[in-house]
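Teaching note: in complex prediction, the entire set of molecules is handled at once rather than each chain in isolation. The prompt given to students was simply: 'Predict the structure of this complex.' The entities are:
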Amino acid sequence: MLAFIIKRLANALLVMLAVALLAFMIFRLAGDPVELMVGEQTSQEDRAALRERLGLNDGLATQYVRFVVNAAQGNFGVSYRNGQSVLPLIADRFPATLELVLVATLISLFVGLPLGVLTAIKRGKWYTEGLQFLSIVGVSLPSFVVGILLILVFAVVMGLLPAFGRGDVVQIGWWSTGLLTPSGRAALILPSIALSLYQITLVMRLVRAEMLEVLRSDYVKFARARGIPRWRIYFRHALRNCLMPVVTMTAMNVGSLIAFALITETVFQWPGMGMLFIQAVTFLDIPVMAAYLCIISFIFVMLNMLVDITYAVIDPRLRDAR
Amino acid sequence: MLEAAAQAVVDVRNLKVEFPGRHGTVTALSDISLSIRPGEILGVVGESGAGKSMTGLAIQGLLERPGRIAGGEVWLGQKRIDALDDREMERIRGREIGAIFQDPLTSLNPLFTVGAQLVETIRQHLPLGKAEARARAVQLLRDVGIPSPEERVNNYPHQFSGGMRQRVVIALALAASPKLIIADEPTTALDVSIQAQIISLLRRLCKEKQTAVMLVTHDMGVIAEAADRVAVLYAGRLIEIGPVEQVLHAPRHPYTKGLMASIPSLGARVEKLNQIDGSMPRLDAIPPGCAFNPRCAFAGPRCRRERPELVTIGDGANACWLNAGGTA
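The expected output is the structure of the full assembly:
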């Protein structure tokens, strides 16, 4: 198990180095950083000094190594746009996005898993067919439409929940959380539902397909022949054998949601990383973009590792192998 | 007959199984009657699709929908079990009827230790605590010949070889000391050398514990080695049943004769293997009269008209007009 984790870690490190190279290349491809940073009137000497200070006169390899060493310490340079250090800028936005994504993921699992099992074991009943149909609607509706509909119904017409913002937040160290205040929790409801709807339908359809497969297996039939009650077979024997693809998909989706929550964040004016990134693209703020790329990749790589370890926890056959 | 039925572990009477479908109802089993006494192994043979496995599934109440028991009775001791609902059958399956499946590689859940699966089965049916159930699990593994069972009980199925896994499956079937075990092709997926071990294990346990065994197989070698009596199925019908020596060496039904003649023997190397011409009819196209008549060399007009009943001759019985005293 330990050797397995070390191997995975080494793999992850290689991937991160490659990503860092890509991020580093953005700086070179997007033009001369000095030109992007200085104004029209800056003198030639000042430019040269800045170039020297940024280390742009060194060889490419040296610059790359320096970039990696700095990035590993959380130093992604300063934003071209407002001269602030990049990492605090992102750290400021990150908790909002992560809380939104985690709550949306939890909702999708707690709703999607039981619905998937139900639609598999009660196949052909009118209500499961109805759920199947609704799930197609859920997959096809874009999240901004869902968001706007939710705002219309629950915020504008009924006035039950806030339509935008994060509500009150509490600072715990550098982390700001909205989970501890009533207004923060209320503000989370609509965006997390909008974000999770697609996930719910995905989880449900995946679990259904896997369950139908597993319920045909010999060990399920044999469990029936051993006199194990139906519900125990469904939830203990069958569901656990369906979990691998669900774990993979959920983890990968957490990554995508963090990276692409920007649409939902825009609709709900959610102060997360997505909005920061949109602004960075508009202003060609390369350090922010590079840092964003590295951090998102880091999250993906970590999730991937977590998935592999979870596999080994779920399936004993994978513990001895590899 | 009455006396035999009274002491039988399982008594199947005129069992009929139907599958309603879009193009009409298919009769998969028709008029199957058989019984098994304590400590007796009844071999059930026939071609693929003859209804061997289906008979076992019908007894266990495990027919896949839309299949259903459309007639006849299944008695387990003094209890009639063919009309019980699923919850009542859950108390009988595993407790009174154990099952052994064909492929030991797929019949165990890969995510649980064999101990967990044994304990689960034991505690489902017997009023034992965790520690007692575990001790019983270890004892069961010892009974089926698994070395160092105290350690192996914590292993996962993939850590066992195919033959060892089938022993685990047998231990699971025996977990609650059932009176009847239905073994569906228990050796088909195993190496020949392992087959003999599993068969002798099954036979020893059956005799020791006085368990009745229904041994479904298409392998005549297995039948010759293990069975006390043999039932031959053809197109969902029972055509001959009797003691193993009689059915194997002096078969009375023309189909059984053909079946026995078609087994190649090790001693004599022949140019051409014997075979029965034609193939078994599909279940939705069984000819009138005797189901075997289109392939039978002795078929007469009556065989194409009337279905022969099972007629008892000596200690066996068969369904053929030739043996019914009349003319074919």
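Point out the following to students. Residues 29 and 55 of chain B are 8 Å apart (CA to CA). The interface with chain A takes residues 60, 62, 86-87, 90-95, 99, 101, 103, 106-113, 120-121, 124-125, 156, 158-159, 169, 172-173, 175-176 of chain B (CB under 8 Å).
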